[in-house]
Records
---
Amino acid sequence: MKFVLFFLILNSVFICHSQTKYRIKWDADKKYSKGDYKGAIIVYNSAIEKDSLYTNAYNFRGFSKFFIKDYKGAIIDFTKSIELNPKKHDIYYFRGLSYYYSLNIKDAIEDFSKAIDLKPKRYNYYYLRGVAKKNQMDYVSALKDLDTSIILNPLDKEVLFERGEIKFSLKDYLGAVKDYDSSISKGKKTSEIYLKRAFANEKLKNYENAILDYSEAIKFNTVNNKIAYFGRGFSKGMLEDHIGAISEYNIAIEIDSNYSDAYNNRGFEKMELKMFQEAIIDFDKAISLQNSNLNYYYFNRGNAKFELNLLEEACQDFTKASEMGYELAKEKLIELCK
């Protein structure tokens, strides 16, 4: 009788202990579901103190840390969870995301791969692995992952956009445009995607379409979209609408008065209109801003000065451009500056 009573007491203690553990997690889950992740972490701590092998508590404490961008802490919890149960594909996925946002791309790819091994039909696992590979400039392998992701779910606008990005990097500009088209048709309508499609259309020399895309990009970002105005100026210039191009560069410069490429390109368009003195003023400004394209700026200013019969000054500019490695400037020196 004493043995039975002792057993009942032990069993009662075990049940009480287990209920306490689960009750604590239940309280933590309520905070988690309301987005109170910091509060949830504190309560999950208590559940883990009750049972250091409580896998689900590690999982949700890791999720909570992930959502407050404590990626290092999340990785520690997900790693512990994986030690206790290495078959949870979603934990590998979230640890992979935590590595990715911590800029540890190599380990992120490894975790996404493990998640895929455990659950090969999850399109988002291929998508994230493809994005991670893109960040390593492994574009061919990334494209394969995005292709698989789209086969599993052809309706995701973000996956289509990312595949367009990868195709652009692989210089498949037509393929990129098609993917951007599909992404837009499925609801991704942002300044960014219209800019990207405009870039691809420029590469294909579809300047009219590029202008339309830059205009759409401006609609979605009317305040600070100097790149769209610059791009629209470039495309108009390629269509020999030099006055229109200058107007676009004017706006880009109003947005950013230190936009050296805009001064350079505006100067180039002024040269097309034989406004050589005005062009030199723009090239002077571009050169004064000292960016990485100085060789082009000096070369263009040299051409403007040559048109004004300032041969000595033109040759000085060609010499500077040549010293910076610009081959066309070297040819000009041989041709004009003997």
---
Amino acid sequence: MVTMRRHIDDTHCSEIGLLFIAWKMLSGDMLKYVSMIAGVAFATLLMSQQTAIYLGLAYSAGAAVRDFSGDADLWVMDKAVAFPDDFKPMRSAVIDVVRGIDGVQWASPLLRSSAAMRLPDGTPQRPTVVGIDDATLRGGPSVMLNGQLADLRKDEGIIIDQRQAETFFAFVDSSGVRRSLGVGDRVALGQSSALVVGICRLSEALSSSPVVFTTSSRFRSFVPVEDRQLAFVLVKAAPGQELEDLGARIARREDLLARTPEQFITRTEQYLNESTGILISFSIVIGLGLVIGLIVSGQTFFNFVSDNSRYFAGLKATGMTDGMIVRIVFTQIGIVSLVGYWVGMGLTAVFGLAIVGSGSGFPYRLEAGIPIGTALGVLVVGLIAGTVSLWRVIRLEPAMVFRA
């Protein structure tokens, strides 16, 4: 041991040798090694998965704004509107007033209301009917999968979303086969008949209500008189016009609210965070992921260190300094954290692929920042677990190895 001591110091001991010792101690107790990895992996999965679901919900809350904006610069609405489905009726004359404001290149109405619908087999539904400008078709879906947006001008024409056609609007046809509503099918909408002339693709929305597009003029035949309402006005600013100044002029003129699409989406997300329990609920779950990872990994690693106390004492007896022992301990916690992190992120990615592949429309948004944020969380867990365990190791006496 004296000979070994002569060759072991902080500056000359091989880092590879320390890594080898750290690994051999970990692999020598495979059950605890796997348990620690499982704890870190579960914490990683919980933090990253719940964050992805929350971001998916927040993103889907503004889906209608992204789908309907087109090249509009501003959304004009009642001041009380907090999110797209919270539309409040405005006077029909508002559209003409907005068009007459200096700096407005064009303004298009966006009508929204719910209406009773009966599918071909008699199944009742109550979709949100969206009426867009007859002449320009602004505010309509931007992605058409079957048919064209211009087909909406056909007699009794409506356009529906593909995913909603396969879920909300699925029906049993005359041959007894259940299928999705498609182009050429007729439904009863309000007090009139409607013909599906196109299938579009809408973003996954937080609202569970299906959407039906039609023209503003036909909107009035589908929606009861008392429910007719101008929900929003889409505005295009004239070239060179400052949007903030234009929005302020519109607001002063009609005591309304004018917001860019980005501002409206932010307003929607703020409502989601401040007026619902979603943010708090997900924050609690993500925090639990950190706590569970800390408890499981920390306790297991502390037990691992306790069980290997004689080996650490033996290393001290051979001449290893506290600095070397610290490197061994944090190498072990680093190995556990790294492997557990990648296992957890792998499970998160598999979960996301399964959700997206299912076509369920479940909101899930695994953004680039999630792995980074989760890695920081795992790093915190590892540092705390390693520091707590290190306290025991540093206090070990080399003489312990010689005790019976």
---
Amino acid sequence: MTLTLPENVTYSHAFHLSDENRTYLFTRCVAWHPTMLCSDDNGATWGEAEQFVGGGGARPYIKFVSDAESRIHFPFTDGHPRDEPSNSIYYAYYENGELHRANGMVIKDTNRLPLEPYEAEKVYDGRTEGKAWIWDIALDVEKRPVLVFAVFPDDRNHHYYYTRWAGTEWFMKDLVNAGRWFPQTPGGSTEREPNYSPGISLDHGDPSIVYLSRFIDGQCEIEQWTTDDGGETWDTVAITRGSSERNVRPIVAWPRPYGTEKPAKKLLFWMYGDYVHYTNYSTGIKYRVLADETAGMPRKIPARKVTAIHTGTELFTISGQRLRSVGGSQAPVPASRRLSPGVFILRDGQTVRRIETRSGSITAR
């Protein structure tokens, strides 16, 4: 079918929520702002396009992710950091006709759109360390939001931030200074897009993995960053090195359907080549197949009795194996009890496995 909208469109995202049996389409359309349409017949017909996020004359930038069941999560900005000197990051999620903060508090229902930035939850305040721009959002194993975004103390220093909802508050980490913008500014001219960072994104199959591009020895190179403690510390692996041309905007293909068992391999894509402006470029797309050592593991592992607990460091010993918490504190429990639900890293020799405990069982992730 052909869907005709009242204005030009870009930045489109479509999600189907199984609990509602309804399809949602988000795009930039009405007044150059995020816009929402709904379909109750799998896209055969659509309701009226409605402005989803407000913000006055600015053009908010927004990212979406959904659990495909009941929720659609979205962080957004006041506008473009080039135009908004204190551009901030906001967050809300949709569920059952209402918009919520991360803690579940209802903001308002969708009969009273648009959502204004001041009504949403401010995750990052652009008046603190510098204006910001959202890059990606994914859901962790507990279906909690994880975000990455860029912060600009000034236009020549682009810092990548990692933040996640830890259950009661947002954990936030300044990962690295990626350098300046990646477009190749013609000599004698002023850069038109000084906030075009080389790029950062989350692995949507496992958002403890981040792919980013930053300046290394004068060139934009791709790296994989991995954390096993919720974002406090990170290990890095070079994907590209010693390159003769830009490597920017890395992204891993999403699992299909979202939130299901991870495939044995995943695809990392990025853009390379010469880029002066979005109207002047000579670029291509490269990809790399990345093996996932945790894929194909058995989904269930028999529950084990807790034999030692060190709550000060959140370190657990189970049958001689080391189990470390990843995300939020673990309350002290008697050694005779099984682990309460949580997300952990199990180190078995040289193998690193992500597991989740549920009702006395340990489920491989």
---
Amino acid sequence: MIEPGSWRRRTRWTRLTYGLLAVAAIVLLLLDRPAARPAFFDTLRAGSDDLAAPVMSGVSAPLSGIRSLRENLKEHWAVHDQNEALRARLEEMEGWRDLALSLRDTVSAYEAILEVPGVAFVDPVVAWTVAESGGPFQHARLMTVGKDKNVKPGYPVLTDRGLVGRVVSVAERSSRVLLLTDSTSRVPVMTEDGEVRSVLWGDNTNAPKLEFASGSRRMAEGDRIVTSGDAGVFPRGLPIGVAGVTGDELWRVALYSDSEPIDAVWVYPYEPIAPPPPEAVTPVAPPPAEPAADETAADDAAGDEESPGGADAADALPADAAAAEGEADGEAETPVQQAATAGEGQPE
């Protein structure tokens, strides 16, 4: 049970404490203004900071060490798990590497037997790219190489993962690359097995769409998309990405080059197949025009009039014909006449 006297004393001390705290708060508020703050307080604050800094540093050092140790342990276990995953992936990649080398040798042998010409690539040109703002395209980048490295418009530009775009303009020491995602980009593509062909249509998104797909089968989720080489825009077989259907129910391609920043690139000199020159055609003279029927009749009449003895020859023709008929009649005898003639030559 609390006695009345102790309650009064406790209440008095509580009120006194609250009053002192209120006065101290008011004084601190008034002294916090730079105009009303005495220089003594600034000096006192600076001195207290100098004294507290080593103490706080000494106290926080062990805490920082414990915190960093915990983070290091977490990173260590994460690195361990990553190493295990990378080892498994490396073993799988070694098998694919051996298969790729075997297929490369087989294809090379077949091409040598069939004398199939391949795409001839010269050494690529390495360049750095930077983003472009205010240019003629919405999705383009600038490269640090140009005519000084024999870069020409139309050359494909790739990263270590896949195709980025193509060179559209070249200066002396710089060039502009039109990315596959730009709305003006159109690239003939196909599935890796070559059974489906389409056009990669940029629309200013990170995943360009596929238009005008056609082939012996339908497009499937996960199909690897490469360049088809049609129209000579790019060489055949450059990797682009993976096909899939998005929320807008359109076939789009997740670009390989979009998985990391586009900084270092390779420019591959490529000359498209040039069409043969047109053959020289020898002009053929038109056939002479045939004369009309009226002109032909007039020419015949004029020829008859000009030839000498034309009328006499015409009159002689019936007499000759009559003589010839008489001879024919004399030669051809009836069977009765033949019998009479035979009887005249026999003795009675």
